[in-house]
Every structure is written in structure tokens, then in C-alpha cells.
Amino acid sequence: MRVLVVEDDPQLGPWLRDTLARTFGSSDLVTTLDEAQAAIAVRGFELVVIDRGLPDGEGLTLLSQLKQQRPVPAVVVLTALDDPIDIAHALDEGADDYVAKPFEPTELVARAKAVLRRFLLDRGSVVSVGNLSYNIFDRVVCVDQQPIVVPRRELAILEAMIRRTGYVVLRETLESATYSFDDEIQSNALDVHVCRLRRRLRKANCQVALRPVRGLGYLLSAD
Ligand code: CA
Fold it and tell me: What sign does the CA torsion over 166, 172, 174, 176 have?
């Protein structure tokens, strides 16, 4: 589990890093927004603890960058004021929890653990076949943990199939998952999309088989 601490206080920062490293295994400390952005850009973190008052700006501005990460890290914001409006603002911006300063070490660790537990439960929404995984929650497809881009209709097909791995999925089921009521569907459109999806997965070195079952539909299985 990787943790990033973004805190400029010379005492609190190293202390947070060490405390969280003891609990979660590994933790990095940065002291400015700039450094935080650089760290997030090169490495994935499961938990990020952010101080709001940083030398080069407001810690909350990191939230939009963090929410684009896959998987999305859990974020705990440290607020200097135990001010309800301040706290609501942090949560509105996408923080998962907050801890008001001054805080007890045990409180921070307990909050961080609770947030992470919730996140890991959400990851229960990940379905895998072979080296392919799909997160139903944020609709991200990964091969060997690396996200790959799958266009909308192919994603709909994949989603319908991966939930029924090892079973034949009927054409009608796939068509209704893939097209809206207003779409005009040509008779071979589904097969074209399945074919593209199969090619895309193969190109990504995905070890799954997506086979046609004559007269019925398709079957997805580990290869
Ligand atoms: Ca500060």
C-alpha cells in the first residue's frame, strides 16, 4: 500500500510519513503542491493525505488530478480549522474524509484505515478473467493491471460478457446492452463490434477468448 503525505509543517510532515509508513507499509512525503503534482504524475498511491495550507497554494486543488488516477486513491484532508463550512468544502471537492488539526495520531490512522477499507470494498466491484479485469464501479478495463481504452459500444459488450464469463450471452442481450432504443441496428453491427473488441484485446496481450456460439451469441472465457 503506497501513501503520499502532502504537508509542509517541518514536524508534522515527517511524523505523518513515519506513522503512516508503519501502518500501511510505505509512505512518501512532499511539502509543496508542485512536488505533490510531480509525485502523483509518476506514481500511483492508494492513500493521499493532504494539508490544505501549502506554501504554493491550497491543497484541495490536488483533488481533481487525484480523481483522474486509476485506481482512484483515497484522500484524507487535514483542515486547520474545525469549521463546518471548511469541512463541507473539502468533502464537496471530493475528499473522502477530513481530520481537523490538532489531531491525535490514533484518530488519523483510524480515519485513514476506514477510508481505505471502504475503497477496497469498492474494488470488490472488479471482475477478472485471465489477465483482464474490469471495474464496474468506474468502468475501467485493465490488462495486467494496465488500463486500456475501449470505445463505448465495445465497452458495453465487454461489460455484459465479463459478468457472465463462461456462459453463452445471447445476441439479444448484447444488442440491448450495446444500443439505445433509438439506434438503428444493422444485422451484422454487433459482430463488427465484437470483432473489433476481440482484436483490441488481443493487441493488448489479453489472455481471454471471445468466441461466437452459432445461432446464439458469444462466450467469453480465459484463454
Ligand atoms: Ca501547512
Answer: negative
Query: Of 66, 60, 22, nearest to 47 (Cα)?
Result: 66
> H-helix or E-strand containing 135?
strand 132-135
pLDDT per residue as tens digits for the range 129-170: 999 998 865 678 999 989 999 998 899 899 889 978 888 999
Q: How far is the CA of 104 from the centre of ligand 1 (A)?
A: 17
CA distances, 45 to each of 35, 152, 223 (Å): 14, 28, 31
Cα(194) to centroid(ligand 1), Å: 52
The span from the CA of 51 to the CA of 44, in Å, is 19
Question: b/e for 206-221, b at 16 or more Cβ within 10 A?
Answer: bebebeeeeeebbbbe
Res 201 pLDDT > 70: yes
CA distance linking residue 212 with residue 98, whole number of Å: 50
Q: How far apart are CA 48 and CA 27, in angstroms?
A: 9
Q: Do residues 55 and 31 lie in contact, with contact meaning Cβ atoms separated by under 8 Å? A: yes
Specify the pTM.
Answer: 0.57
How far is ligand 1, taken at its centre, from the CA of residue 205, in Å? 46
